[in-house]
Amino acid sequence: MKRTLLACAVACYSALNLSGCVLGPDFQTPATPLAEHWAPTASAEGHSQGVESRVDPRWWDSFGDQQLSALVREAQARNFDVQLAASRLEQSQALRRQIAADTLPAVDASADYSRSRNTQRGLNDPSGRSGKQAFSLWNGGLGISWEADLWGRVKRSVEAADASVRMAEEDRHGVQLLVIVQTAQHYIRLRGTQQALRVVQQNLQIARRSLELTQLQVKEGVATDLEVSEAAAQVSEIEARMAPLQQQSAQLINALSLLLAREPRALQQQLQAAAAVPAFGADVPVGLPSELAQRRPDIRRAEARLHAATASIGVARADFYPRITLSGNFGFQAMQLSDLGSWGSRNFAFGPGLSVPLFEGGRLQGALQLQEGRQQEAGITYQKTVLRAWHEVDDALVAYQAGQRRRDSLQQAVEHSQRALGSAQQQYAQGTVDFLNVLTVQNALLANEAALVESTANVSLSLVDLYGALGGGWEAWSEAAVPL
């Protein structure tokens, strides 16, 4: 008995020493093909631009809009997509724990009782009663089994599972970032729509005053019914612009409600009052090129996918080699319950099991080639993801700076149109120009003011796109990650 236990101990020790051999390539973080410096388009004086400083992980607070910040916080807490991503992360972690269990021995306890009677015509009756009487059989014991990870198959499987957990975690980060960006975009569009509606209402008041002035001049004989009709048509045309804007405003509020996992019109009272479009006047910190791969969830996920594919090659290569399983059991067996547990009722068995793949018909080679192909695909995907991220950042910087220039030009156009309308109304009141001149100038003012509101919102939206491209924002909730 002692010699048997000693032999088992020596075998286990030898297996543990041999388990240091790990097949397959070791993963190395690929070089990131980014430029050494950001190269944003030169910005005009007075315009904000990208600067190489740390990206604020709570960049939405930089807009100085408490309503926006509150909506982002609530969206992160309530959004269904964020909850689904967290659930998928937990599932991935559970699968990793299941795979990692193979690194430890499996121990089972068993106990059973049976009442039976053997045939009198059979070859053997273990009860010694030749099948003439029924007998009871009591069993109880422990069983243990463990695969000696000689070639690192289990280790590589756990490594691949760890990478899969990181993929799920980066998926969650990506969803968090997307929800932040969508919340900010919907909110900015809502405020832009409300400001556009305010512009229409102001122009409607101007048109109504012009109509009243025209009606008064008709009574005095200095205007015609045609001019009255033109003024009335102008009022109706401006009034017609209000309904689509009101509809768009209601839909944007509902879109925000959906992001916050709330029922339609739940935010109506909270957001129906018009407010200014959130603006960001300072220079935008865009960080360093080397930091982009550390922030962007899609790049981090692509790297984790490459890691998982690399580790899976080791698993496929280990399948070519023998597997040794150490197993044993120790227990008691007796025909009487009172004898169960006595030293004489003991039974045991210990020993290794060997499984060697001799002929698989090309299955193992095909599995290895498949994993190598997946690693190659993951490597190409990583390079593509990094390059796409660089393009998105550069495009967002260009759009942000171009939007500022357009907004400033439209601001000047509005100022000129306002002066032109005042002059045209004064000349019309004096009878030096007809009403068509007033209509033309007012339509130009309305178009320029609407374009200015849209441009102002687009500048803020392009800034949101820039921060989305930079990948910042999910870090603010990283402490909520589910631990392994």
Automatic annotation (TrEMBL):
Gene3D superfamilies: Outer membrane efflux proteins (OEP)
Molecular function per GO: efflux transmembrane transporter activity
Species the sequence originates in: Pseudomonas taetrolens
Protein's recorded name: Efflux transporter, outer membrane factor (OMF) lipoprotein, NodT family
Pfam families according to UniProt: OEP (PF02321)
Primary localisation category: membrane
Origin: domain of life: Bacteria
Disordered: region residues: 110-131
UniProt signal peptide: 1-24
InterPro entries: MdtP/NodT-like, OMP_efflux
Assigned keywords, A-Z: Cell outer membrane, Lipoprotein, Membrane, Palmitate, Signal, Transmembrane, Transmembrane beta strand
Membrane topology summary: Lipid-anchor
Presence of keyword Acetylation: no
GO cellular component: cell outer membrane
Family, per entry: Belongs to the outer membrane factor (OMF) (TC 1.B.17) family.
Subcellular location: Cell outer membrane
Keyword Lipoprotein: yes
